[in-house]
Amino acid sequence: MGWNSVIGQARAKSILRRAIEERRIPHAYLFWGPAGTGKDALAIELARTLLCDAGGTEACGICASCKRMTALQHPNFQFVVALPASRSESAPDDGKDAPASDVVEALRGEMELKAADPYCQITIPKAAFITVKSIRDIRHESSLSSFEPGRKIFIISDAEKMNPPASNALLKILEEPPADTFFFLTTARMDQLLPTIISRCQSIRCELLQDDEIAAALTERKGIPADRAQVAARLANGNYLRACELLSDEVTKVRDEVIQFLRDTMTGNIAGVLRPIEEEWKELDRAAVEDLLSLLLIWFRDALLIAEQFGDGIISTDQRNALERFAARYGKADLSEALRVTEHSLELVRRNVYLPLIFISLSIQIKRILLHVRNT
């Protein structure tokens, strides 16, 4: 609990703490940035701090308000997400358009997961958008007297999912916000929000997370061994959620594919070189191809460190034996050049170049690099 529950984002946390300390909290914040960077986590921790009975720049974690926020069940707090479409988005605010019981149950379960891990992505089956009914509920709740004294806080997660009626309804609230009521919007797609909504919020950018921040979080929060955490962090490109996804057996499979790719490259097995595309990625899943090339980069990096007697700095410590055999055989080759051509291939993938052409060209270049010194 506390600001340490938010991974990285030192600049954003500093801004928020200073605003609390100076008692200059705007009525609306917009937390924006790439997926998996902790936008919801920041918004939740700010809400926890503002609702804390201690009134400091960090939630105490022991007062009644903090204990309620641990389960995201504080009566003055509401977390708004996309829901399945209701019978009519133009229905009057008559209370007859409440979510179905199965939706309510699904939302309750997702909120329990969110309370346990603020980085958890809430997923409601058939959720279409944030409805105008949800925003009407915010307007209604914000106008009522609180069961508890103090501030009211509404978090609108993935705010870009508001449909036009919902966006217009929120805009009216932001134009004349009720006293002691705060709105925290989060989005990875700020360009899809109304400019007038953006202008009425103070923006807080969430930066891509550093590899060491992600790796440390995986080790501390999920008990992942340091070497495995480092590999997942390197592949995640600053996205903690992506790093968590990569903890499955998928990474082990792709690491095996890297070794097989090198074997096929050195034996001239073009069919084998193309196997990762033609079999595992029949639909040309470029994200999966990026993972393979990123792991290939890690392989060449570790092999280079071992070849230059800096083996203590390798990432894939569990592959040390295989890396040492590779370095013994190809350590005098220009592994830095192998890194360069692999990085270039990764860039071509991101530019949507034809994947088979990338893999064949990369295979030819790597074989040339590795065999050049081997034959001298």
Question: What does this molecule look like?
Answer:
The chain is an alpha/beta fold. It has two domains: 3-205, Rossmann fold (3-Layer(aba) Sandwich), CATH 3.40.50; 248-374. The protein has helices at residues 10-21, 39-51, 64-70, 101-116, 132-143, 164-175, 195-199, 211-222, 226-236, 240-245, 249-267, 270-280, 286-307, 320-330, 335-350, 355-374, and strands spanning 28-32, 77-80, 83-84, 127-129, 152-156, 181-187, 202-205. α8 packs across α9, α13 packs across α14 (320-330) and α13 packs antiparallel against α15 (335-350).
Shape: elongated
Mean pLDDT: 86
H/E topology pattern: HEHHEEHEHEHEHEHHHHHHHHH
Total number of beta strands:
7
**Low-pLDDT runs:** 92-96
Q: For this entry, what is the oligomeric state of its chains? A: single chain
The largest β sheet comes out as: 5 strands, parallel
| Estimated helix fraction | 40-55%
Q: Would you give the CATH topology of the largest domain?
A: Rossmann fold
- Strand arrangement within the widest β-sheet reads 2-5-6-1-7
Q: Which CATH class of the largest domain applies here?
A: Alpha Beta
Radius of gyration: 25 Å
Q: What's the architecture of the largest domain, going by CATH? A: 3-Layer(aba) Sandwich
- How many structural domains are formed by the residues? 2
Coarse structural class: alpha/beta
Determine the strand fraction and express it as a percent band: 5-15%
Distance between the termini: 60 Å
So, the CATH homologous superfamily of the largest domain? P-loop containing nucleotide triphosphate hydrolases
| Continuous helix count | 16
